[in-house]
From TrEMBL:
Residues 1-19 form the signal peptide. It comes from the Eukaryota. This is Serpin domain-containing protein. PROSITE patterns: SERPIN (PS00284). Belongs to the serpin family. One of its GO terms (cellular component) is extracellular space. InterPro entries: Serpin_CS, Serpin_dom, Serpin_fam, Serpin_sf, Serpin_sf_1, Serpin_sf_2. Keywords: Signal. Pfam families: Serpin (PF00079). GO terms for molecular function: serine-type endopeptidase inhibitor activity.
Amino acid sequence: MMWTTLLLWLGALLSVSYAQLSETEGTGGEEEAVELFTTPRAKMAAATSDFGYNLFRALAGRDPKANVFLAPISISAVLTQLSMGASPDRSERWLYRALRYHTLQDPQLHDTLRDLLASLRAPGKGISIAARIYLARRLRLKPEYFGVVEKQYGVRPKALMGGAKDVNEINDWVKQQTGGKVDRFMSKPLGRNSGVVPLGAAYFKGKWITRFSQSGLMEDFQLDGEVPARIPMMQQDNYPVKMGVDPDLGCTIAQIQMQDDVSMFVFLPDDVTQNMTLVEESLTAEFVQDLSMTLHPVHVALTLPVLKFSYSTDLLPLLSDLGLAEFLADTDLTKITAQTVKLGSLNHKVVMEMAPEGTQYASSSQVHAPLSYRVDRPFLFLVRDEASGALLFIGRVVNPRKLRI
């Protein structure tokens, strides 16, 4: 009875907040956005996040029954490097619109992004980012572009020689940038027609503030229409979270605090289902910022999967869904080369670990938590930098059996 009462109260609290937000959007959404994101860095973080949510929706929609993962900030970083070589009147404008920069009105856009990336790379946040442009040497490249990108972002675009040596060069660089955690980024040579090859990679292992006392116990993870999967879980009673229920989305949402002002949001559907379209479509920087201010602090008996996985894909086919069809058809990179050029791929790889370690123990003095939050069925999660609001990582776990490291 106590569990039901509290959960309904949390749901009512969250629903009221969403209704208030909807009313504000209906009468002056632009004003609300200004109130939420007031500094250049916060606005930049919101733009990179909204780009990330759009890219995630495109990726998730490609196969609704698949596990999908994304570190959007690495793709924002590399496409921004690419924009520095684009013609201002055409290709740069298209890229800025897809990256959501057209909303910023920031004359120091590149400085703002550089400072944001530097803050996100702080060691305690647990994320390593690799983002770089590779270019075919045959393009008669303009050296000015190399210097401009290196001066602004601290990474120099690289000319490719062709063949297996390029694969080794790329793999070694990505591995070095991610502390050895993202290995074998590429497994086969680039295609002969690969002129421009942006790539983004990331590794994430955030540390919880509150540790889990039990870990590794094999338990059932419910699957939609299949026999449950046996996977390792981590569990802790009296775990501090912020939580609420969204009846419209049909899910319970928990925000779990991590070290260095990072947190994880978990969206757990009410039913065992692979269909998370409603949740995926709701995600925006503004929506998640509102959640962070609305979810209610509680203590729960928390159970999470112990996940270690890697995921790689070519994101290039998805760019058309983000409004870049014209850019891909007529890629004008006049600051890089005077020749006609095409993007060969947009390779992306992420590696993530969810482990039980933490710096603090859960309180043992409290009464046993009346609420239980058990993530034992398909779910969606995202990792956010609370200081800036930037989306670091987002994923959908449909079937842990198909995860690989």
